[in-house]
Queue: 4 jobs
Job 1
Amino acid sequence: MAMAEAKPALATTVFSLGNFPFTSKKVETSNRGSPPKPVLIVTPTTSGQYPVILFLHGFFLRNGFYSQLLEHISSHGFIVVAPQVYIILPSGPEEIESAARVTDWLSNGLQPQLPENVQANLLKLALAGHSRGGQAAFALALGYANTSLKFSVLLGIDPVAGNEFAKLEPYILTNVPRSFNISIPVTVIGTGLGPKKELLKPFPSAPEGFNHVQYFNECKPPCAHFVTKDYGHLDMLNDKLSDFADLMRNLFCVNGEGPRDPMRKSVGGIVVAILKAYTLEGERGDLEAILGDPDLVPVKIEPLPELIEA
């Protein structure tokens, strides 16, 4: 009796640093041709043409707090542009309009800021955001501000629409499945501890009814959903933020008990796999490997990841 042929083991390298050396650069708003908001650019230095990701930070956070996550993504062959959208909290519409202005700046302003022989491919432009920045990214993709460029993929990292006492404006959640009028592929990465509260932390960072679950449910296919079960809303940020930000993170957020590096690698790797699948001529091998074996992810993904195809 012939034995069944063993299936080859699934594998991916997206959870390790990639093969592209990278550099980081801060660009302020002081000069002619400078961006409308300060930006952090993380870019490969090897000669070539690379897709671009616009990354929007979360509530009262600095773009530099995400540097390790953004470096992981860039090391796989992507240019990341992370504006400091605000220091003093703006209204929701003002935040979205600022993100749109930075998007428009990319057309003529980004290329002069890149290393020699590194080309930005704005035909493969992704939009991503975390927390309140995830909400802003969804609103921008929904057309709440006009941009001269088109996005090819949208990623929300633990997006939050406020809470029952203070909904973010514009309030885009409808509680109607597949209601978002977004035609590009969307991926939502949530956290298992974001909706949690404790005795001395009574307000969840990503409360139920306003978090990743609702955003994913309202996406049209193709859309994907991943949940990092044992990590919290800010656990993909750098280990060291600032004294004040570290204090706020520990006082108000339910955080994972383990080191944050596996969480950054997990979020960064999932982002890379999605970007490769939808911006690099359908390089789906890494995404298919993760969907086929979620244990490849450095942190526990639960429930099982979902990918709903068009």
Note: The chain has seven helices and nine strands.
Job 2
Amino acid sequence: MARRFPRVMGLAKMCRNRNISFKSLDPPSSLTHGIHIFHCPDAVGIVAKLSECIASRGGNILAADVFVPENKQVFYSRSDFVFDPVKWPRVQMEEDFLKLSQTFSAIRSVVKVPALDPKYKIAVLASKQDHCLVDLLHGWQDGRFPVDITCVISNHYRGSNTHVIRFLERHDIPYHYLCTTNENKREGEMLQLVQNTDFLVLARYMQVERVSHRDNLQSFVQKSENLEKQCLSKAIRSYCELRVLPYEENKTVVF
């Protein structure tokens, strides 16, 4: 039986080309926020029909981004909008966007209403270094990430008296230690542990930051750790806000 492996949060090549965007004022507090992404063959009138779909139900677009690659007959868009869920029920919204996607033979049409829809379920893969994992866990606790953490998996053993394990136990988040070797990556066991998750988070990102001869080893490590935490935090929020779309084989469109 085929199994679906969740998406993995990582860094890919990002495409920003002919990006057209506009933003409006903040929405009234009585309305609900929605996000829609659209990927289809390029054609005349797509933006007009997207706007009509939302406006016809009393919705209002607050921000919109469009990406059409040069010499490629494909169209990408991301729209932030507000609506009254009484006038535009969630089920009706799905039906309206489905009709739109059928009209333009869409490859991908996804609508998300953060206040009404389930949170993304994520599994976290961590290494020995704690800084990214700890920052992620505390950000999740503070409500910065609209996700539910199903488990943390690591190839590093952490004792019961460590800060990470105590935090996970307080929040009933399982911690799985998988001792891996070059001959045995434990991929089958890992696949079992991450079933029913939406995507995986690799809790450590490698980036490069400018350093000078004035930097000592401690300041260099601090800069590196801060950059990794910022990158991971932004990547998770961007994915949850539907800002990252697959483009070709190994690239992404980032709105």
Note: Confidence is low (pLDDT under 50) at residues 1-5, 9-18, 205-211.
Job 3
Amino acid sequence: MHRQSSRMTQRELHNYKCTLSDELLEKAKKELTEDPDTRKQEIQTLRERLLRYPGLKSRVDDVFLLKFLRARKFDQERTFSLILNYYQMKKENEDIYTNMTPKSVKPLLDSEVVTVLPKPSKFGETVIIFRGGRWNPEKYPIEEIFRVSFLVNSAVIESEEAQVNGVRYINDLTDFGWAQAKTFTPTFAKKFSTLIQDAFPMRVKGIHYLHEPALFEYVFSIIKPFLKEKLRKRLHFLGENVEGLHEYIDPENLPEEYAGKLPSICSQEYFERLLTHEQEFEDDAKFGFLSMTIQQPSKKSQDAMESLPGTFKKLNVD
């Protein structure tokens, strides 16, 4: 589905068709500095820069690039860095990103460790729920949590509404115990924190913690050093006060577990749709930083450099 630009037709490359309402177009203009009149040029500027970057095979179609531009409010430098970070994360964690498809994490999807509410928050944000107590670390290592989170977030951010309005997380820690807590390491905490803050095109508007057990302080002490001040200010620790969610999410759009008026959480229909996009995730896996071997200079060329006069031999050419 997604091919390198040199092999893509103009129709495939310029594959964006705006689906935003007039209200969201105005919001995108006000909050993200998005201008429909210059949108194409912004995308093209970013595309050309990525195509010139050595060793990187990036997706460069309109739909892909626009997600990143919106995530960084159309700041070209910050957007470019975000895309590099996105692919660098993939390169540095090949063991996690290999076979990154919905079918590969179907057992975790079925257990609904991560779910998406069918209706948004009061501010239009997509609401994603993480229920760590449903995760069995003896069957699925913590890297699988990264994988299922990445896949669900990737599916969510395909929506233009989510790109403009952002997302809001509910971290429900019911039944979260030592079996799960002991798997959290600084390495994993840094990796996951880097993903959501610096290596993924998503605007996180808030994270709400519910039913935190006593040992949560231990887990959070590992995570906290890797959180930027901007995100720390968006954390909400509610304990047993599920009604605290109602300030941000209308009870009409919440399930009964959170004092809402919807039936108990069931995301099977959503995940069945996710599974139909298997091929798209397989296609995305073809992009990233290329494995490059830098040829070391021969002994003869080294000797030649040593014989150069003055300081010219100290020049570094990048």
Note: The two ends are 35 Å apart (CA to CA).
Job 4
Amino acid sequence: MAMGEAKPSVLIPMPSRDRDRDRDLLVPPAAVATHASPSTRAGAGSDDDDDESKPSSASAAAAAAQSGREAFHKVVHSWASKKFMTGCVILFPIAVTFYVTWWFFRFVDGFFSPIYAHLGINIFGLGFVTSIAFIFVVGVFMSSWLGASILGLGEWFIKRMPFVRHIYNASKQISAAISPDQNKHAFKEVVIIRHPRIGEYAFGFITSEVLLQGYSSEEHMCCVYVPTNHLYIGDIFLVSSNDVIRPNISVREGIEIVVSGGMSMPQVLSILESEPNQLSRIRSNRS
């Protein structure tokens, strides 16, 4: 080969990795993305969709779990509330009964227990037993002629006192209402009257009976006491005997109904005497 001749150029193939690196350095990434093949863009889009679908499915699962926990909490709260109220309803009357009984026991025991304590006798309940025995003896003694005479003499002195006599008379009327003797001062019968308007009725107690006389006629009236505040405050009505309904309950049962606010009311009430029988009885009383 001659010295003046040029040497033929030899092309050495470059590795594909080097070509890709050089292309990345020369061509901007945006252009590469623009000239990418449709299949490549479609693959990238599907990857993005998968990435977006994954958070949405995770949030739906979290929302479902949250709603499930809230529903479970509501069910547990409702069940616990019902059971708690059931326990309160059952235990409340028991607690009140024990409390009132214990208070009554301590109150009655307090009359004679100081006397026994002064004598050096400390026996639990001895004052209560003594008080009950004393009340029984007073009841037996006052039922006799001598006891009634002493009681009448004591009432004569009490009724001469300006302020004490009003308290004694009111308390005596209340105690006479539940007296087993059913004397003239006690509630005679439990009745139902139409009050305060047509279609409404009220419980009352007959305290006395009067004869209302007019110019040409007379009418048999009943004095009916209708309690408005438990038993010791109420209204008095003069009701015709024809308008009085007599149910099949005693005076004690009527007092229990009034004191309990109607909770001890029997489910069925029957009338002891019909209207024709009442009219015939009134006519016989007038004759």
Note: Residues 189-276 form one domain.
